[in-house]
From TrEMBL, chain A:
UniProt-recorded name of the protein: Possible cytochrome c oxidase subunit III
Residues annotated as domain Heme-copper oxidase subunit III family profile: 26-198
Location of this chain's protein in the cell: Cell membrane
Lineage of origin: Bacteria, Bacillati, Cyanobacteriota, Cyanophyceae, Synechococcales
Source domain of life: Bacteria
Gene for this chain: ctaE
CC annotations in GO: plasma membrane
EC number annotated for this UniProt entry: 1.9.3.1
TrEMBL record, chain B:
Domain of life assignment: Bacteria
Similarity comment: family membership: Belongs to the heme-copper respiratory oxidase family.
Native organism: Prochlorococcus marinus (strain MIT 9515)
Enzyme class per UniProt: oxidoreductase
Free-text function comment from the UniProt entry: Cytochrome c oxidase is the component of the respiratory chain that catalyzes the reduction of oxygen to water. Subunits 1-3 form the functional core of the enzyme complex. CO I is the catalytic subunit of the enzyme. Electrons originating in cytochrome c are transferred via the copper A center of subunit 2 and heme A of subunit 1 to the bimetallic center formed by heme A3 and copper B.
Primary subcellular site in the record, as a coarse category: membrane
Taxonomic lineage from the root: Bacteria, Bacillati, Cyanobacteriota, Cyanophyceae, Synechococcales
Name of protein: Cytochrome c oxidase subunit I
A biological process term (GO) from this entry: aerobic respiration
Membrane topology of this protein: Multi-pass membrane protein
Places the protein is found: Membrane
GO cellular component terms given for this protein: membrane
């Protein structure tokens, strides 16, 4: 009988379907879809910039790269840090995980702080032509993602203290860390587009 | 007629819901059961079909005479905007999600969707954004009135200066609808990829599943672009940014790109499942296997890919550069190839078949006929010179209604009738169904066929008054619209009365092949529960000499679990 063995391994017991694998698949699909929003914004930025007779609002010749560069370094390194947090969890070193995970959160928060400082020093606003709108839209939308990421990390940290957890908790950690890498890659593209291409 | 290929031993006889589907309270509850959610979607959507239809009849009432006498032009603009929006976002998308929810898990042998809670969330967003949209009738300035495509600059003007205005509510509602669809799409794709019954490889999936997968991938790839555009539109309207404002260095045509990058594929999001429905039903009602199963399956993906690269054909007359027009004319024409493969396969399936003209089949045949017609006018529109001539006339309106109503809605009705016994456990009244079909076909044809001529003669769309030379076509169209309104009466009557006191349905009234027909009617909560079948065969093995591969083994094999 061809199918007997196959059947036994493939069948789910009803009511006890393992959702773990689905979660990851679903999450990856979601991220692919989300990257298209960013992609749309990037295309919008490029099209407007290329076709604009005047791009920067009057009085501005470009934007300062120093501050965001520091931010970039922080965010990119946090992607490595979070990788080690995950490693610790896989090695069942719960405290190692918590500490390194928390460091990632701090790095993310520093990024948000840096962006806040940058925004408050800028001399153009949302209403300053196509550039002003695009700048705040892109950095703001990305910033929202960073904040979401930090909140999700906080949630995972909290869950790591729940009794009996962290048998199923790895799943959430993996998704959040994937999300964090995603936010990081988007930032790199965004950085190139806005800050390097002046 | 050949014997049906299902193993009667597999069919459970016990009715899973003793109070059955008539226990209507389940359908008003927060529930994570895909079958309940499916019916919730369908009933909600049909309600909005009535509302949208009412607005449509008001539009046709205005257009029955040349001058603008019933409504003043701003009200008229609000009417067609809301008509289009409701029909697309509150009727077609939700009803297709509903059918998908009902059909996908049982057809692939899964107990439920991959994320039941997200599924419920996606559904309950529908009433939320519907109410937001309908509220716009009551805000100062009335509902959005810049058409369902909402092009700037008109859509970002706010003459009243009010923060809360119809256009803003429109954008919020559409964005929520987008979120609901994305959640749904993630769920459908994950379910299809991960939860198929053992043995059901990709080339053993029913075509409906293929088309749902293709359509939902399109949602995932296209919809975020519209959402991005909607966010930018919202900022322009509410916070005074200049993404699409020429004065501030913005570009209104950019919005059109975002909009059509999604909204062209969106037509395939809607039509692909209907192609799936045709492919399911033609074999059943003509007792033949689907011709060229693999080609039809692959064609679905051909359509998906091509439909992402044709959007500019909606922008031929907005000053698009010539090279772009030609490029997109070419890609648009290419899409006729996979579509043609499907049409050919259906006709070959019907050819020489043992055709049963029951209600679902009538709707399918009517839909196929209209689709061929709408496809031809589509190819005409894709030719740049023709489009420059008839774009913005009633020819376009006629074309897309031939597709959107006369094909897509026909397919949806076919599906509702076909699977009604399965999910309600009751048979519908065939006579009423046939009356419904006849009225719908006459009404739809009378409504939109004459408008092709009005358009070719140059009657512009989106205006409340027109030159008296077009009067005759409009009178015909308006009569057709009212007939369509009347057609809803036998339909509602049929659905309600047969659900309440129709004859009980057997598990497989049409002698169809497919996992869902192995279940009792209505199916139990987790579909196959313990007996998840193992799929051995391609779908649609009707009428073959030897329908069962693997020497006389059945189409599915009862799995031996008892862990
Ligand atoms: C298969 C399902 C189809 C659906 C649901 C559909 C639907 C629509 C809709 C809604 C519009 C009007 C857009 C507006 O509001 O301005 C439209 C226009 C158009 N359709 Fe289709 N269509 C389909 C098939 C096709 C095909 C097969 C072709 C060509 C091969 C085609 C070519 C066009 C063109 C070129 C226009 C633009 C006309 C203009 O605005 O000037 N369509 N279609
Ligand atoms: Cu199109």
């Amino acid at each position: 009988m061809v199918s007997k063995n196959q059947t036994l391994t493939l069948n789910h017991k009803p009511g006890h379907i393992k959702h773990d694998g689905h979660n990851m698949t679903g999450f990856i699909i979601f991220l692919c879809s989300e990257s298209i929003i960013f992609f749309a914004f990037f295309v919008g930025y490029s099209v407007l910039k290329i076709s604009a007779p005047v791009w920067y609002p009057s009085g501005i010749n470009g934007i300062d790269v120093k501050m965001p560069l520091i931010n970039t370094v922080i965010l990119v390194s946090s992607s490595f840090v979070i990788y080690f947090a995950e490693k610790y969890l896989h090695k069942k070193n719960l405290w190692g995980f918590r500490i390194v995970w928390f460091i990632t959160m701090i790095m993310g928060s520093y990024f948000v702080y840096g962006q806040y400082v940058e925004w408050s020093e800028l001399t153009f606003s949302l209403q300053s032509g196509a550039f002003g709108g695009m700048f705040y839209l892109l950095t703001g939308f990305h910033g929202l993602h960073v904040i979401t990421g930090i909140l999700l990390m906080g949630l995972m940290l909290y869950r790591s203290f729940l009794p009996n957890n962290y048998k199923g908790g790895e799943m959430g950690v993996e998704s959040v860390s994937l999300f964090w890498h995603f936010v990081d890659v988007i930032w790199l593209l965004l950085f190139g587009l806005i800050y390097l291409w002046q | 007629m050949t014997i049906v290929n299902y193993d009667p031993r597999l069919v459970k006889t016990k009715n899973p819901y003793p109070k059955g589907p008539n226990d209507w309270k389940r359908f008003f509850s927060f529930n994570t059961d895909a079958k309940v959610i499916g019916i919730q979607y369908i009933v909600t959507a049909l309600f909005f079909l009535l509302i949208g239809g009412l607005l449509g009849m008001l539009i046709r009432g205005e257009l029955i005479t040349p001058p603008s006498d019933l409504f003043d032009p701003t009200v008229y603009n609000g009417l067609y905007t809301m008509h289009g929006t409701i029909m697309l976002f509150l009727f077609l998308f939700p009803i297709l999600s509903g059918l998908t929810n009902l059909l996908v898990p049982p057809m692939i042998g899964a107990p439920d969707m991959a994320f039941p809670k997200l599924n419920a969330l996606a559904f309950w967003l529908v009433p939320v954004f519907s109410i937001i949209l309908l509220l716009s009738f009551f805000v100062p300035g009335g509902p959005a009135s810049s058409g369902w495509w909402s092009y700037p600059p008109i859509s970002i003007q706010n003459p009243l200066g009010k923060i809360i205005n119809g256009e803003m509510l429109w954008i919020i509602a559409i964005s929520l609808s987008g979120i609901s669809s994305i959640i749904g799409a993630v769920n459908f794709v994950t379910t299809i990829i991960r939860m198929r019954a053992p043995g059901m490889g990709f080339f053993k999936m029913p075509i409906f599943i293929w088309t749902v997968l293709a359509a939902q991938l399109l949602q995932l790839l296209g919809l975020p672009a519209l959402t991005g555009g909607a966010i930018m539109l919202f900022f322009d309207l509410t916070f005074g940014t200049s993404f699409f404002r020429v004065e501030g260095g913005g570009d209104p045509v950019l919005f059109q790109h975002f909009f059509w990058f999604y909204s062209h594929p969106a037509v395939y999001v809607m039509v692909l499942p209907v192609f799936g429905i045709f492919s399911e039903l033609f074999p059943v009602y003509s007792r033949k296997p689907l011709f060229g199963y693999k080609f039809v399956a692959i064609a679905s993906f051909g359509i998906t890919i091509l439909s992402l690269v044709v959007w500019v054909h909606h922008m031929f007359y907005t000053g698009t550069p010539m090279w772009m027009r030609n490029l997109f004319m070419f890609t648009t024409m290419l899409i006729a190839v996979p579509t043609g493969v499907k049409v050919f396969a259906w006709i070959a399936t019907l050819w020489g078949g043992n055709i049963r003209l029951s209600t679902p089949m009538l709707f399918c045949l009517g839909g196929l006929f209209n689709f061929i017609f709408g496809g031809i006018t589509g190819v005409m529109l894709a030719t740049v010179p023709v489009d420059i001539h008839v774009g913005n006339t009633y020819f376009v309106v006629a074309h897309f209604h031939y597709i959107i109503f006369n094909t897509i809605a026909f397919g949806i009705f076919a599906a509702i009738y076909h699977w009604f016994p399965k999910f309600t456990g009751k048979m519908f009244y065939e006579g009423l169904g046939k009356i419904h079909f006849t009225l719908t076909f006459i009404g739809a044809t009378l409504n939109w066929l004459p408008l092709h001529w009005a358009g070719l003669l140059g009657m512009p769309r989106r205006v409340a008054s027109y030159d008296p030379e077009f009067a005759i076509w409009n009178v015909l169209a308006s009569i057709g619209a009212f007939i369509l309104g009347v057609a809803s009466i036998p339909f509602i009557l049929n659905m309600v009365s047969s659900w309440v006191r129709g004859k009980s349905a057997p598990p497989n009234p049409w002698k169809a092949i497919g996992l869902e027909w192995l279940l009792p009617s209505p199916p139990p909560h987790e579909n196959f529960e313990e007996d998840i079948p193992t799929v051995l065969n391609e779908p649609y093995c009707y009428g073959l000499d030897k329908p069962f591969v693997e020497d006389e083994k059945f189409y599915v094999e009862k799995s031996l679990k008892k862990h």
